[in-house]
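Input structure tokens:
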């Protein structure tokens, strides 16, 4: 990350009109906003979409500060706030589609994104075609006359494929298609979406923006062409967040650079250690050549984080359970991006229900790790003990079959 971006994380959203002379924008809670004069009320009504106090659902100064900060950090023309990342994804899509439209969705998307396409959009008469994440210029073959938007997620959920976003964006724009990106992995700072052709950059700010596993928050930053529509459609769908959550999102931004650097340093050390293990088939860490799309990571990203996966050579569910159940520093839990380390397993057959065209064809179990801020040697020791339990169970099964 450049010094300029490091500084932005400290200064963004701290305009004096939001801070009133203190360091952090205060938490301003409000539903009703009262006006002294008809002129004041009329002014607020006319400017209600432009960070003016009008009604609580339009936002307070705390929300305006976070919106300013996210817009400055990611680029674009404005930021809409949502109660979680899934709300940011679904409402960003809904803001631009209607019955009869077609969308292109990366097959390695976040599972709730796929569920939204299958269980909500399908009922609305909106068709989804899933595409292989490394398709590149081949995306042109999937475009239909009614294709409205292209949705990307890079790296991909669970299997970590990195997409060629500039190529995908160029082809989409040649066909008047909106490009949306789930930019959560890069936290809005390690991949600059608008410099690579993205129109709307979406994050589960629950993850690294907040950074402490205690707030649900979503953001969507849009370019000038689509900002007004995203803002107004999201408002009409009732999307808003509490000022307290907005405040915690702002606070998380101030340490984001330091946290990401430590997550990235530790995760790469763990990933390289895992490459030496005989039980491991391969490691899917975007910074390593063994990860699909690594060349695009090296070209387009400015840093990493703590989330990656590795694949075991075998699939032994009882052995995997033995590995997971005895961990000391790694906890089993959904989400990621907090200070704590997490571990989850995906057996090969699980991808059959999650993927249409991008089933990775693993023979072994995939283990997804989030490397937190604990001492990295303690984490490696925890994994080493887990793999020892795994091996013992594999050997026990082999002996019982003889």
């Amino acid at each position: 990350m450049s010094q300029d971006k490091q500084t932005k994380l400290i200064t963004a959203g701290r305009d004096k009109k939001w801070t009133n002379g203190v360091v952090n924008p205060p938490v301003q809670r409000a539903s009703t906003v009262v006006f002294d004069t008809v002129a004041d009320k009329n002014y607020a009504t006319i400017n209600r979409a432009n960070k003016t106090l009008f009604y609580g659902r339009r936002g307070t100064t705390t929300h305006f500060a976070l919106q300013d900060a996210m817009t400055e950090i990611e680029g674009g023309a404005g930021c809409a706030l949502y109660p979680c990342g899934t709300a940011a994804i679904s409402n960003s899509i809904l803001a631009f589609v209607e019955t009869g439209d077609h969308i292109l969705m990366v097959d390695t998307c976040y599972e709730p994104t796929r569920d939204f396409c299958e269980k909500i959009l399908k009922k609305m008469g909106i068709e989804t075609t899933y595409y292989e994440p490394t398709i590149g210029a081949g995306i042109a073959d999937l475009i239909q006359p009614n294709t409205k938007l292209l949705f990307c997620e890079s790296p991909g959920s669970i299997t970590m494929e990195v997409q060629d976003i500039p190529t995908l964006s160029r082809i989409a724009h040649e066909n008047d298609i909106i490009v949306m990106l789930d930019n959560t992995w890069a936290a809005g700072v390690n991949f600059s979406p608008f410099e690579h052709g993205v129109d709307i950059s979406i994050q589960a700010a629950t993850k690294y923006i907040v950074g402490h596993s205690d707030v649900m928050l979503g953001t969507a930053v849009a370019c000038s062409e689509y900002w007004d529509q995203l803002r107004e459609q999201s408002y009409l769908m009732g999307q808003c967040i509490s000022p307290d959550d907005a405040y915690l999102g702002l606070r998380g931004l101030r340490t984001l650079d330091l946290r990401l650097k430590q997550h990235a340093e530790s995760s790469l050390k763990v990933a390289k250690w895992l490459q030496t293990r005989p039980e491991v088939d391969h490691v899917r860490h975007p910074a390593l050549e063994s990860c699909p799309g690594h060349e695009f990571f090296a070209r387009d990203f400015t840093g990493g984080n703590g989330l990656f996966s590795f694949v075991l050579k075998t699939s032994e569910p009882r052995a995997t359970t033995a590995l997971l159940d005895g961990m000391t520093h790694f906890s089993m839990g959904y989400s990621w991006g907090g200070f704590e380390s997490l571990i989850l397993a995906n057996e090969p057959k699980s991808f059959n229900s999650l993927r249409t065209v991008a089933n990775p064809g693993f023979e072994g179990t995939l283990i997804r790790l989030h490397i937190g801020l604990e001492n990295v040697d303690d984490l490696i020791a925890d994994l080493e003990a887990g793999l020892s339990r795994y091996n013992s169970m594999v050997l026990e099964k082999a002996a019982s079959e003889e």
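The two ends are 55 Å apart (CA to CA). DSSP finds 14 helices and twelve strands in the chain.
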